[in-house]
Amino acid sequence: MVIIPLPPPWRGGAKPGYRSDRGKSRRITEEMVLKIEAKRTEKPRLNGIMLYDELVKGVFTPDKVSLATFYRYLTQYPCPASPAEAGQKEKEIKCFSHQ
After folding, report:
1. pTM summary value
2. Confidence tier at 34 by pLDDT (50, 70, 90)
């Protein structure tokens, strides 16, 4: 009977290190919330990634608010009824139409 030793549970032979953003706050500040909501009311038909791209241009940088944090905020605080749902007809925005 031959016993073969099992490899360690991690790959590459080295233990994985800590995350680079460990201990850093990834919260959305009150100032950012006000600017996000202003942009949402200004352009209610933008989807999450397009809204994030609009806000990265001037409100915050990707190192301050990650896309995952931004999506988490959008799911916790959904957008109020858009003008299309209120009975107004609005042109549909396609994903690459903003470029």
Report:
1. 0.59
2. very high
